[in-house]
Amino acid sequence: MPKKYPIIFLILLFILNALFAVAFYNENYVQRPRVIFFDAGQGDAAMADVGNNTQILIDGGSGNAVLEKIGKYMPFYDRKIELVIMTHPDKDHMGGLVEVLKYYQVGQVLETGIFCETEICQEWDKLILEKNIPVKYAGFGQKINIGNANIDILYPFENLKDKEVKDDNETSIILKLTINKGLFKLGENGGERKKILKQVQDDNFNNSYLFTGDMGFKAEKELLDKNINVESKILKVSHHGSKNATSNEFLQTVKPEKAVISVGKNSYGHPADELLNRLKNMSIEIFRTDEAGDLVFK
Q: If you count Cβ atoms within 10 Å of the first and of the last residue's Cβ in the chain, which end, N or C, has fewer?
């Protein structure tokens, strides 16, 4: 072996060592599941990282900015998003998801399937067909267990596939995401991954998040009338803080400790003073993406 290695050999050796270090760290570090509400401008986009490189993406904002956000929070070598949820086919929720379908492997899609002939809906359907992505259509009572999380679909109450609706906001998927903050690391037996089921002394243990899309008072009332369990620690406020959603009655039933408003520069008056006052009057802590940027809850 020559005493002086060629520079190219040293570079390759450095790269291999770096890649090994990254892989080793990823396999052995103790993970803390988290939910990130992206600063997506006037739109909704959130990602739940639920352990073992398993991600759930809920809406994607209006354009390709979501790709940069995902790249910031996912390991560079992880090119798969296990579950993509489109709450309803408005551009400020699904536009970025179309870009995600182009550049990431998607394990499964969950949507309402309502009739939609817009250009962006046609592109969405085309990509799903081309990439042979499994699709499920949301309905009350569905339960999804994925990674270290459970998802309960609370709305819509009926199968809406191919149905024409007057207001797609009122058919938004409403879901509760519950994260069990057990810890993950490699076990001692042959490197088998084990889950350590010990209580984490943390006020946020078993965080619950309620995602409400753009639903208004009508869908809220349906949920309340049927006594659906919507209680959650963290509420993703509906429709970017519209005055026509998130009523006092709804807030009293959800009982959130924190409220997240996904909002950007807009001409709609979002978030409305009426909505902000409802939250303040109940001493709910308010977080806004237009003021704080990306919001990470662990």
A: N
Q: Each residue of 227-243: pLDDT tens digit?
A: 999 999 999 999 999 99
Whole-angstrom CA distances from 131 to 67, 79, 138, 174 are: 18, 14, 21, 27
- Please count the structural domains in the chain: 1
Separation CA 242–CA 165 (nearest Å): 21
Nearest residue to 85 via CA among 111, 117, 60: 111
Structure tokens at 157: 């109450």
Q: Is residue 28 part of a domain?
A: no
pTM here? Answer: 0.84
In a domain? residue 97: yes
Is 6 part of a structural domain of the chain?
no
Judge contact between 38 and 47, C-beta under 8 A.
Answer: yes
Domain membership flag for residue 7: no
